[in-house]
Amino acid sequence: QVSLVESGGGLVQGGGSLSLSCVASGYKFGNNVMGWFRQAPGLEREFVAAIRWNDGGTNYIDSVKGRFTISGNNAKNTVYLQMNSLTPEDTAVYYCAMKAGYSLASTSSRYDYWGQGIQVTVSS
């Protein structure tokens, strides 16, 4: 049974930084992609970033390029999202997700497994 558990959220002042972690278990390593999505109140879930385990390939939504960095540690089964220069517009519940296959997809329906989500709040 696949499990994804996020940690590291919280409250930060605008311009600050936070680092999210997602520990994955219960699946076979290999051709998987890990992604981060976010959902603000009243809005649809939005793709943030994705990373491919086998070659480290990444994909980002334009609004976070240069501010957020996704990375992974295979030995720890963990994917990270380092978020810098945060703004109130980054406030949302952040979700970790996993999909099989090569594509660094940005569509939530392409992902098979999801974490419970963790709140990130950025004050102005």
**Fraction of residues in helix:** under 10%
Overall 3D form = globular
Distance between the termini: 40 Å
Helix segment count?
Answer: 0
* Total strands: 11
The helix-strand sequence is EEEEEEEEEEE
Give the helix/strand class: mainly beta
Q: Gyration radius, to the nearest Å?
A: 13 Å
- Unreliably modeled segments: none
Give the amount of beta strand, in percent: over 45%
Main sheet?
A: 7 strands, mixed
Instruction: Give the averaged pLDDT, no decimals.
Output: 94
Topology:
Blueprint: E1 3-7, E2 10-13, E3 18-25, E4 32-39, E5 46-52, E6 58-60, E7 68-73, E8 78-83, E9 92-100, E10 113-114, E11 118-123
Parallel strand pairs: 2-11
Antiparallel strand pairs: 1-3, 3-8, 4-5, 4-9, 5-6, 7-8, 9-10, 9-11
Q: Can you tell me about this structure?
A:
- With 124 residues, this protein is an all-beta fold.
- The protein is built from no helices and eleven strands.
- Strands 2, 4, 5, 6, 9, 10 and 11 form a seven-stranded mixed sheet that branches. The chain has a four-stranded antiparallel sheet with strand order 1-3-8-7, with no helix packed on it.
- A hairpin with a 6-residue loop joins strand 4 and strand 5 (46-52).
